[in-house]
Amino acid sequence: MAKLPVRNEWGGDMERQQYEQRCSELYEVGGYAEVREAARAGLGELGPDPVLLRWLGQAHAAEDDDDHDAEAEAAYRKGLALAQDDLGLLVSYLELCLRSDSFTYPGRAARGAALQTRLEELAPPGSAERARVDAVTGWAGRGYWDDFKDSAAQARSRREGAAEQSVQVTDALRRAARGEFGGEPGGEPGEDLRAAELAAAVELLQGRRNALLRLLLAHRAAAYALTLGLCLGVNQALVSSGTLRFSLWGWLLGIPMAAAEAKLRRARRLGRERVVARIRDRHERADAAA
Question: Which of 58, 100, 136, 159 gives the lowest tally of CB atoms within 10 Å of its CB?
Answer without folding.
Answer: 159
